[in-house]
Design goal:
alpha/beta; 10-stranded mixed sheet; 17 helices; 41% helix
């Protein structure tokens, strides 16, 4: 799935059988349930004996002094646990031991709660920062909040595929109906990107996978001194959390899947990305309807179609005269894609469009311009995203398949289709062996009750993915936020959702019906630039 365009800390992160990827070069090594599982057990035992020495965090983490950091050593290749090891960075704030309720009553510590925000390629090092937030305070009273940077991310054996300055080059175009020459240009870029990943990573490139992320998680569990894992995964974090539950069901205590990826092996990853583009078209329509409803504030049109026309005007002007010299159609599309992820972007994005059409490009330039300080981090995140998704499964290796599928899809879902294709196109030319996706599922009774949270109109991880995961994990409970589309709903603005999260993590309670529904959180209030 496409990585979220921005890290989001909750207030307080397809198409059908005819489009299934053609076979790629398969990984013919020993199946993952033999050598690699034995290697994981060896590495976990070693980590349990060593533990993690927590101390002051490196300045590069930008974390306050009350959060402590350390590292855990994991094998690069789990088939050879005595071979090369890499270090993953870990952050932690210890349980407060008292409730957030009046009087601050003592509570029983329930262990470490590990969080992953998804991506692939996102770092969870910031997670302990949520401890003082109202939505997390009670949970933080009972759990050590633990974040970490997965392999390849941040300072955890970082992966890079190209010079960050080149990665952040702007302005760029983003045609919804690309020409033949533009397609050739993007094919050349995809090939060069894949070659850059191989050149920089060497033989290590094949080890950036979801399977290894799941194995790393078990080693981290052991290093924290936990017999059982407590885990919250958001977005892609739900997928490798589900892979973890499939590989290590007896190691799970409590597991929350927030905004679940569809784990069906036939969907990983080519088909999932196509379905995602359809879902973003629907969510883009939700945003435009909201803007039209507040036409008195924004003056962008009284209907969703009128708002689309206003957007197209802006895009056409930026193609010839980039805002601030760096915001072209490509940067515009990326900025407004964020509105598809999180509705708390809606007011500021609508204001920026409105102001631009009034002759004031400053808000749009401020919101959409690439930030030089973030270039290295964004390049690293994209490199890990690409490596994991390309390694995880087969992708079509003939561009004619991509061209056919995305041309057809763009006729009804133009907003994100081609940009999504370009982001994933390096997988067509990937030099490393491909894994076979894990058949995520557990036997009845093999896994404790788990909690799945999903917004009905989520674009990044469409709702059917949550239902598919629910079907594959007997005993799991699905909580649906009806009529909402924000990506990542745990500890967000919906009190009903938060009550289920709190009851599960604090008391192990889940709805007895295996399904529950919450009304949507309130829509954003309109806000005009003064």
């Amino acid at each position: 799935m496409r990585a979220a365009p921005a890290v989001y800390v909750a207030a307080g992160s397809l198409v059908l059988t005819a489009l299934v990827a053609a076979p790629g070069r398969a990984d013919t090594r020993t199946p993952p349930d033999t050598a690699e599982l034995r290697g994981t057990a060896v590495a976990a035992a070693r980590a349990a004996a060593t533990g993690i020495t927590f101390g002051a965090c490196a300045a590069a983490e930008h974390l306050p002094a009350y959060i402590k950091c350390g590292t855990v050593s994991v094998p690069l290749d789990y088939a050879h646990p005595a071979g090369k090891r890499i270090k993953l960075t870990v952050s932690r704030v210890k349980a407060t031991g008292t409730t957030a309720q009046k009087g601050g009553r003592p509570v029983r510590r329930q262990g470490s709660l590990v969080f992953n925000p998804g991506g692939p390629g996102a770092s969870g090092m910031y997670f302990p920062l949520v401890a003082p937030m109202p939505e997390w305070k009670r949970i933080a009273s009972a759990y050590d909040l633990v974040g970490y940077a997965p392999r390849g991310v941040g300072r955890s054996a970082p992966l890079s595929c190209e010079n960050p300055k080149r990665f952040a080059k702007a302005p760029t175009q983003a045609p919804t109906q690309p020409s033949a020459s533009y397609k050739l240009e993007r094919i050349a870029q995809a090939k060069a990107y894949a070659q850059g990943c191989a050149k920089n990573a060497g033989d290590a490139l094949r080890h950036y996978t979801t399977l290894n992320n799941a194995r790393d998680l078990d080693v981290l569990r052991a290093a924290l001194g936990e017999q059982k894992l407590n885990f919250v995964g958001s977005s892609y974090g739900t997928y490798f959390g589900a892979v973890y539950a499939t590989l290590f069901p007896t190691h799970v205590r409590r597991m929350v899947f927030d905004s679940a990826v569809n784990p069906d092996p036939k969907q990983i990853w080519y088909a999932n990305n196509l379905v995602q583009s359809v879902a973003f078209e629907r969510r883009w329509a939700d945003f435009r309807k909201w803007v039209a409803k507040h036409n008195k504030t924004y003056h962008l049109g009284a209907t969703a179609a009128d708002v689309q026309q206003s957007y197209e005007k802006v895009r056409a002007r930026l193609a010839s005269e980039p805002a601030g010299g760096t915001v072209g159609p490509g940067q515009l599309q990326s900025a407004y894609l964020q509105a598809g992820y999180y509705d708390d972007y809606w007011a500021m994005r609508a204001s920026a469009l409105s102001e631009y059409l009034k002759g004031n490009p400053k808000p749009l330039a401020e919101q959409a311009a690439p930030q030089a300080a973030a270039a290295a981090g964004n390049e690293n995140s994209t490199a890990v995203y690409t490596a994991v998704e390309c390694n995880d499964s087969a992708w079509p290796t003939d561009f004619r398949v991509w061209d056919r599928d995305n041309t057809q899809l763009a006729r009804r879902a133009p907003f994100e289709t081609w940009d999504n294709a370009w982001m994933n196109l390096p997988c067509a030319y990937w030099p490393a062996p491909r894994q076979r996706p894990v058949d995520v599922r557990t036997a009845p009774g093999a896994l404790p009750a788990t909690l799945i949270l999903a917004a009905e109109r989520d674009a990044a991880t469409p709702y059917e993915g949550a239902r598919e995961l629910w079907r594959r994990l007997p005993g799991s409970v699905l909580v649906t936020e009806r009529g909402a589309g924000t990506h990542g709903i745990a500890a967000g603005p919906n009190k009903c959702v938060n009550s289920h999260l709190d009851a599960y993590l604090m008391e192990g309670r889940v709805p007895v019906t295996r399904a529950a529904a919450c009304a949507p959180h309130p829509e954003p209030a309109p806000l005009a630039v003064d």
